[in-house]
């Protein structure tokens, strides 16, 4: 956890000076840690977490559409997020995500 802005600035400068291989290694380590955390969640907590992220995405796409940004493209993204919400709901009810059998 980053304590203050100065630590963040120092860590960001160090990160920017890394080679591509070092950056890839750091990202791989962080992503595997995130995946372990996500896999450790109980089913209800995993559902709630996924649903919250998906709802945030829906809100962001709707806001972009209202502002007139790339309406066709963002409408497609919104539709995909809505399908994801439906899939999460089905997974919570049946225990398996649609199409993953």
How would you describe what is shown here?
- Helices cover 80% and strands 0% of the residues.
- It folds into two domains: 1-40; 42-101.
- α3 (43-66) packs antiparallel against α4.
- The protein contains four helices and no strands.
- The chain is mainly α.
- It has helices at 5-16, 20-40, 43-66, 71-94.
- The N and C termini lie far apart (38 Å).
Strand segment tally: 0
| Largest sheet features | none
The whole-number mean of residue pLDDT values reads 90
Separate helix tally: 4
- Compute the gyration radius: what is it? 18 Å
Assess the beta-strand content as a share of residues: under 5%
How many angstroms does the end-to-end distance come to? 38 Å
Report the helical percentage: over 70%
User: Poorly predicted ranges (pLDDT <50, ≥5 residues)?
Assistant: none
Written as H for each helix and E for each strand, in order along the chain, the element string is HHHH
Number of domains: 2
Coarse structural class: mainly alpha
Shape: extended
SSE topology sketch:
Elements: H1 5-16, H2 20-40, H3 43-66, H4 71-94
Would you summarize the structure shown here?
This protein has about 100 residues and is mostly helical.
């Amino acid at each position: 956890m980053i304590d203050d802005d100065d630590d963040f600035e120092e860590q960001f400068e160090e990160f920017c000076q890394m080679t591509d291989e070092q950056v890839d290694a750091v990202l791989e380590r962080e992503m595997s840690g995130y995946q372990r955390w996500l896999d450790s969640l109980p089913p209800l907590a995993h559902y709630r977490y996924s649903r919250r992220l998906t709802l945030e995405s829906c809100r962001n796409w709707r806001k972009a559409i209202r502002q007139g940004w790339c309406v066709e493209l963002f409408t497609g993204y919104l539709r995909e997020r809505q399908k994801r919400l439906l899939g999460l709901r089905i997974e919570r009810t049946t225990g398996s995500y649609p199409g993953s059998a």
